[in-house]
Fold these 4 entries.
Entry 1:
Amino acid sequence: MNIAIGVKNFNISLIIQEEILKISQKFTVPVNISIFTNGIELLIEKNKFDIIFIDTDLNDINSIQISNCIRLTDNIKKLIFFDTYNLTYNIKVIIFRKIYRFIVLVIRFQN
């Protein structure tokens, strides 16, 4: 499974990556993760990914614009939006829950 993380704050992307890797190990699903802090770069590479996690506020382009560009050519790709601005209390727990639920659904769908 190829996963992209588009997030403004690189440190948060590392936390998200860590949580995705935990889940992939639990379900023995190999993942390749790419991190983007730039929305334009993410759009250039968009076709490589099965799942894209998008921060609602990237450095150069917002998540709605990214989503619209992706949906012009791909209605199947899974997009997950999150807001790092509001992730304060226990970011690992919040991210893990969101990612876990979604990846479990994707794994079940693929099997």
Entry 2:
Amino acid sequence: MKAELIRKSINTGTQSLSYEELYRENGHTLKIDIKSDSYRFQCHAYIWEWSDATDNRGPAWTIVDTIHFSNMKTPKGLQHQSNPSFRLFELDTTILKDTARLILN
């Protein structure tokens, strides 16, 4: 089944550039959150699943997978880009989506 994009955006912080993508695939609502910071150890890459939990927690985002900062393909220091592109985050996005498919399906 083809993924349905809900939204994606790039946001600039004081020392970082963040990528967020929300999409639906195979009955799952997923969120990708990738941050490129000036310092490699402050970078992160997560994929989350929205859960309408029926326990005491209620609805919440749950981490499906993460890429350790030392294994990220997204370069550090992207906040200095004059015209940041979604392509800058593409490799980590692909890894997170592929892993989520294996875990959730």
Entry 3:
Amino acid sequence: MENMADITACAWIVWAIAGIVSGVVAALAVGGRRAVWIDMAVGLVSSLAGAVGCVYVIGLQYPEQVVLSTMCGVLLAGIVLWILDTVTGCAPDSAVCNGCDIDVNDAPDPQE
């Protein structure tokens, strides 16, 4: 490879964009239970951490490794955002709601 600095700079940009996009997708998936910027920040940090961890294990010598590290970063971002939603989210039928806008009285009756 001629210029590794270009690949490394582009890799950081790709990892950051992938993390922000995964955060936005997670925010849309949970339906506004949290602020979008929280999901974007968590997605960004976890994507960068996953990608850097992958690079630490496999290296960053070829463009294919940038793709693999990006997939690792997105996977970790998805897992962390899923855990965040599980810990801080609330289900519509739960008796305890952690500050979301869902009214538990509007849940369908399971007897019907």
Entry 4:
Amino acid sequence: MTTILGRFGEGLFDSAVSALGKIRILQLALLLGCLALYLALSLFDRHSFRWDARLGLYVHRLTGRFHCGSCRRPLRTDKDGWQCMSKKCLQFHANPDHQGSSIVSIKL
């Protein structure tokens, strides 16, 4: 089939299609790369914590820091336990090894 531009037009069309094909291949490669990175980080994150049943907390394997048993966010150490730093959670985890009690009971 002859176009108005002749052979030049066909070559221009073919190069445009091949350029679009290269862009699609690059987009697909980028998408697959991002997916592989996400999966690798998810697996690393899941295995980087150890559950401490006695404390009811997660312990980070590399740093040894405590993380919330509910949301896995870092905890702030208080004198008698650990406070979750997430604004959505704010759960307090009591330290079972703490000797003093912050609750004062008064007998009448």
